[in-house]
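Key result, reporting period 2: structure in, sequence out.
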């Protein structure tokens, strides 16, 4: 259960993906878990997908058919960093790094290190992004 103070400072939102709680209502998440889900939502949304907020999201999907090289890696890091700094004001992005997955599926693994501003809690998240041509 989330600390009430954490909920107050960091907020709460609907669980993603949508799910029901034990009483049949929509499940909520709070605090650091809400922030982690918000990061995933930002990364999974391509700008233009939301009608009422067309600029929301991360441009990583623009790299869908980009080659698996250093230039693509640099753009991917830039797009993720830019999106998180703009759309998630509750965190300070410390570092974003990308590396190719060992699987031949064209995936990049993006490691995001961030600090929650209100609690100074440092966290990291590993997020797979499937782009590029398979080796």
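The corresponding designed sequence is given below.
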């Amino acid at each position: 259960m989330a600390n009430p103070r954490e909920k107050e400072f960091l907020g709460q939102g609907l669980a993603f993906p949508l799910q029901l709680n034990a009483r049949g209502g929509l499940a909520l998440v709070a605090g650091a878990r809400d922030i982690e889900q918000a990061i995933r939502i930002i990364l999974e949304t391509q700008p233009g997908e939301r009608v009422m907020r067309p600029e929301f999201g991360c441009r990583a999907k623009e790299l869908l058919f980009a080659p698996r090289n250093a230039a693509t890696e640099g753009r991917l890091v830039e797009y993720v960093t830019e999106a998180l700094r703009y759309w998630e004001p509750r965190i300070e992005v410390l570092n974003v790094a990308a590396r190719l997955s060992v699987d031949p599926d064209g995936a990049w693994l993006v490691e995001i290190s961030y600090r929650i501003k209100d609690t100074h809690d440092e966290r990291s998240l590993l997020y797979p992004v499937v782009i590029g041509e398979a080796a």
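Strands lie at 12-14, 28-30, 91-100, 107-116, 121-130. The CA atoms of residues 82 and 94 lie 12 Å apart. This case is discussed further under Risks and Mitigation.
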